[in-house]
Amino acid sequence: MKITSPPINSPARSSVAGSRTDGVNSASAPAASAGGKGAVDLSATARHLSNLQNSDNDVNVARVNEIRDALASGQLKIDPSRIADGLIASVRDLLK
Q: Taking CA atoms, which of 31, 42, 55, 70 is between 20 and 30 Å from 48?
């Protein structure tokens, strides 16, 4: 069985009345200003999500370095059974 692309005149490629070739409906496109740029008004939630995405405070670099140094010097011991117990408890909570 050979898979080929649809013919050029297929319904998937035909244009629909009122739509542009780039797939954006011209009636729903924002009006362009004299400079050629459209205006977009974001909701409060969208602005909040955008701020979270652009945040440079995702990682506390100083704390990461402290933990790295403590591990390297042997001051911080890892208890695998405690980690396993925590993971199991998390999975149990997720399955409830």
A: 31
Inside any domain, residue 88: yes
| Residue 82 is assigned to a structural domain of this protein | yes
The position carrying tokens 């009006």 is 31
| Residue 31: Cβ within 10 Å count | 6
Q: Give residue 72's domain range.
A: 60-95
The overall pTM is greater than 0.85: no
pLDDT tens digits, 9-62? 545 544 444 444 444 444 444 454 455 678 888 898 888 887 777 666 678 899
